[in-house]
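Note to self: keep these together.
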Amino acid sequence: MRRIALTGGIACGKSLFCEGLKEEGIAVLDADDVTHRLEACGGAAVEPLVRIFGNEILAEDGSIDRKRLGKKVFASKEARAAVNAVLHPLVKAEIARWVSEETPGENRIRVAVIPLLFECGWEDDWDTILCLTSSEENQVKRLMQTRGHSETEARQRIASQMPVAEKAVRSQLVIHNDADKDSLREAAKRTADALRAGSFA
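Structure:
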């Protein structure tokens, strides 16, 4: 199994890029989707997070209200560290299990989307690391347009992560996404072809 990690900054186009990879037949798992399952009602992260932050972070259905939790996380380094201490081991275990699964006849390329790959110190377990980057102004614009954040909130979220330029330096392949969606999908197709051909290690 070839293990590929995809990282990058917030609002750099990872989701759309991954849609393109999936259209090309590449198996993709997003750490954010794993987190959603862990924070759903009955998920393994719910009880420990409630112990830390109280019932105020719960939605009516018993899941974690990500918006309420997010306000705490992005406003405080201590809160962010507490959440990461709960989530990161759980997410890492789920992704490691998925990457190691053997399915007869399946494409032997697995791409795991891990936005906080370097922040978590998890960069050594992968055959190749891809990084998606954008200018900060485009990141801010996308966060405001697609997620409804104010400019202050958008910049706060960007600042909470490692600078995307630093992630790019530490990756084997860097894809710049400051153009349109069609250009990003074409980049995904080229990347899928390169992965299948083993064009980069």
